Amino acid sequence: MASLQEKAVSGVEKDVLASGRNACYKARDAFFRCVEADAGHTTPTEVASVGLLYPSQCKILRANYEQLCRSTWVKHFDRQFCARKRTKRLLDTDIGARPISPQQKTTIGLQPGGK
Predict the structure, then answer these.
(1) How many CB atoms lie within 10 A of CB 70?
(2) Which uninterrupted H or E stretch holds 53?
(3) Residue 106 scores a pLDDT above 60
(4) How many whole angstroms separate alpha carbon 87 and alpha carbon 47?
(5) Tens-digit pLDDT profile for residues 5-51
(6) CA distance 59 to 52
(7) pLDDT value at position 5?
(8) What is the DSSP letter of 56?
(9) Torsion sign across C-alpha atoms 21, 27, 31, 34
(10) CA angle at residue 87 from 51 to 24, to 5 degrees?
(11) Residue 18 burial (CB count, 10 A)
(12) What's the CA gap between 81 and 84, in Å, rounded?
């Protein structure tokens, strides 16, 4: 009976088990903390997947992150991080605070000027 359980566990990838996922998440969080801590202080010199740029100080953490997580997960987490940064950058600018112009107030079926 124990041999069947051992066979079942040995056929499972380590990274999908809870301990593997937790190790991946910790490595991911450590890498992104490093990237956030350095934001704007140095010029990012390293390129990750999906065009993510990061400083060379985070290179060791990036290697650990890529080692502990599946490549598809790394790409997914990188995309999430970039999307959050892009959204935050858009919300932090004054783009949303501009008044609506008269051209934007028109509705479908109505001409500007109310006719």
Answers:
(1) 14
(2) strand 53-54
(3) no
(4) 21
(5) 444 456 666 667 888 899 999 999 999 999 988 877 777 777 777 77
(6) 13
(7) 45
(8) G
(9) positive
(10) 55
(11) 7
(12) 5
DSSP reduced 3-state for 111: coil
Structure tokens at 15: 């990274």
Are 25 and 63 spatial neighbours (Cβ–Cβ below 8 Å)?
no
3-class DSSP state for residue 79? helix
- Residue 74's pLDDT is 93
Q: How far apart are CA 2 and CA 20, in angstroms?
A: 22
Residues 78, 50 contacting (CB under 8 angstroms): yes
Angle between helices 18-37 and 59-68 (to 10 degrees): 160
Phi, psi for residue 43 in degrees, rounded to 5: -80, 125
pTM above 0.90, yes or no: no
Maximal C-alpha separation, the chain = 82
Strand partners, 53: 47
When pLDDT is cut at 50, 70 and 90, the band that residue 98 belongs to is low
